[in-house]
Amino acid sequence: MTDYACPDTLVDTQWLADHLDDPNVRIVELAMGPDLLENAHIPGAVFWSIFPDLSQPDMSIQLDQETIENVLSRSGISPETTVVAYGSDIAIGGVVFWLLTLFGHENVKVLNGGHQKWTAESRPVTTEFSTFAPTRYQAKPLNSKLRVLQAEVETSLKEPDQVLLDVRTPEEYRGEIFIMKPPEGQERAGHIPGAVHVEHTDTVNDDGTFKSFNDLKHLYSQRGITPDKEVFPYCAIGGRSAFIWFVLTYLLGYPNVRNYDGSWNQWSRLPGMPTEP
């Protein structure tokens, strides 16, 4: 992991095993529901739900400062706590990293290999989540420099130094699926015109760990995603693109990456926004 631009943003399974009882470390499991990884939670983990903890009813990412403060407070997290994130999907750690960085939390780590590697190594698991004495967390104001809004994305379609990166599945990119299901009614499927497609899962090995620096660099540079450009990743609802924001920024060291968290959920519903099948 030492070849990455910021290797200290990752922890491996052995590091986490050595810190399971560290009071300054809080392990966060993020999933759709608490039973998704039933009977196989990492010891000491607290549970965060994608809905409703980190998402709004319209499926957009939760960016209300008070709501984020409440989630952190109930988890016994202070500004000094090191948060280690994992979930059932490889993108989960990057989602938590982006969101907490957005609100100024400086000590966030992604578990390299996630839950997949932890269980493959037969490391300890538990049937119960942990609870901790609540804190009174005060987040910093949202850092708008880590996200790009729809108006600028629209403008970027004519800018050669700005590139849109679609990180969804090929089926979503081709318009066969709309946010994980077949299009219905007036829903528009497809992708933003000119967007380069590199699926988010292409960044990891079979065991769930990240590919090497050189492999990641080749993956993106061969598609024209280079560090001299400003990169706007997007997906369906902003989660997988937050993960790729982490990969490009902290593993490859790209200086100008902003997550389009509105993503296809927003773009496709706005009248007049151009799309391609």
TrEMBL record:
Look up the EC number in the record and give it: 2.8.1.1
User: Do you know which SUPFAM superfamilies this protein is assigned to?
Assistant: Rhodanese/Cell cycle control phosphatase
Q: What class of enzyme is it?
A: transferase
Keyword Lyase tagged: no
Query: SMART domains recorded for this chain?
Result: RHOD
Q: Name the species this protein comes from.
A: Adonisia turfae CCMR0081
Provide the catalytic activity annotation. thiosulfate + hydrogen cyanide = thiocyanate + sulfite + 2 H(+)
Please give the name of this protein: thiosulfate sulfurtransferase
Q: Please give the InterPro entries that the UniProt record associates with this protein.
A: Rhodanese-like_dom (IPR001763), Rhodanese-like_dom_sf (IPR036873), Thiosulfate_sulfurtransferase (IPR051126)
**What's in the keyword line of the UniProt record?**
Repeat, Transferase
